[in-house]
Amino acid sequence: MNLRFNKYIAIALLGLSVGAQSCSKSFTDLTPEGTTTDANFWKTETDAIFAANGLYEHFGDDAMFGRGLFWYVNASDDMVTGRTDAGSAAVRNFTATGAESRVNNMYGKFYQIVQRANTIISKVPGMQIAAETKQRVLGEAYFMRGYAYFYLCQYYGDQRAGLPIVTEENMLESHFERPASVVENFVQIEADLRQAADMLPLLTTYTGTDQGRANKDAAYAYLAKTNVQWARYDASKWAQVAAYCDMVTNSGSGRQLIDTDNPQEDFASVFYIQNNYSSEYIFSVVSNRTRGSILPAVLFENTGYGLYNGWGYFHPTLELYNAFETGDSRKKATILEFNDTFTLFGEARQYYSSNSQTGFQFKKYMQPFRTPIAQHLNPNGDYPTSDLNIPLVRYADILLMKSEAQIMQGQNGDAGINLVRNRAGLPAIQGATITHLKRERRSEFAAEYTDRHSDLVRWGDAQAAYAKAATGRRHAATNDPTSSYTVVTVWPARNFNPAIHHVWPIPPQDLSNADIAQNEGW
Predict the structure, then answer these.
(1) Nearest to residue 111, comparing CAs of 213, 187, 36, 185?
(2) All residues at 6 or more sequence positions from 440 whose CB lies less than 8 Å from its CB, including other chains
(3) What does pTM read for this prediction?
(4) Which DSSP letter does residue 17 get?
């Protein structure tokens, strides 16, 4: 049972092509039309495991969690695009059509995950294999179907139209309608993730290369995240958010923050390779030197000072820098500014940049660059993966989601917020408000797939935030760490219409394939 990206992934994908990828063009190439090779697949435990491995293939897809979905995160006030790029600028300026190469693949790829899960759910129950393996593989399929729909709904669905619901029961159909509301999707997601939670083991039962698989805590975490989105339309869902967060805390897996009472190191260490599967881990993009997320190098200095192929995208804004409280250890762990000392390939350096639009660089994922390239980085700089997993959900999110749920219900949410603040070296808050909660999420999750843009949208804060220009520091000498600077506008104010831009446009080719309507206003 091997989750590592290797020859088995290719076999898994071949196996899924048996039942899921000879497809009609009527719905994003997803509807099976039958095959000639089903007869020699779906027979053995190895077949089932290979198929389950294929559910994670998108971890190594640049258009997904490499940097694809980060174009949406990049719409927030925390960062700006680091290089001239018309497609990404259109996304950030809310003028995109969905056809841009930066964002025109994710919608269909999430539905590929859905259909792979559907195929497993339809085929595996009839297999004569070990009951434990069957249960876990089916649990992974239900999890991944709910997981894929969570992201689809967060980005593309609202109260005016949900996303086509495709399950093992209707996946042979040739036409699918958009539900009247995304709430219908939330009902399906909740059912899938609850089923997954019942079937999946605790993450602490996994060892070795299986550790990155879907697990019980991950199912509970995405149930909480789904209900956070659902609460935009039904305030009673805040109680469910708190309940699912408690299920993570009380699952028996021992989830807790990394907190050794060393604020200068503890938060930074969450993003160390040796802590890929720490007590704070819940679910991440599994990566290694040959396969996985390229995000750390995407955030690294363009051309990497001539030492490695950094891509130089996504620079922190001065607004993010100034948002951290005095004494917050997360600031130095998250952002490099001119003259900061850091280690690059074994040597101490003072930070400077001729690439950064803002005078800053994200530091959060830089540990793989501290040691010689061969130790943790892909020697192929054109595909710069590393051994560092990229968190999608970690325990701090569980604590802050519960605190938000408590505050939104008129309860005291201090406990979770103060655990997070204590780790950052900050004093406790008494009577935390939603304003405190919003600041805490911004400081904790900057440059993560937890997605501040989505937070701003659901809070109703995006329009006001984006009506302000983004600023940075322009240094007089970009190759001098001690250079003086002036504060400049690096991205002008943007027009965010909350009646339109709270969702993203569905790519035109997917609209055409599915014969469904675009999100209103786009």
Answers:
(1) 185
(2) 400, 403, 417, 420, 421
(3) 0.94
(4) H
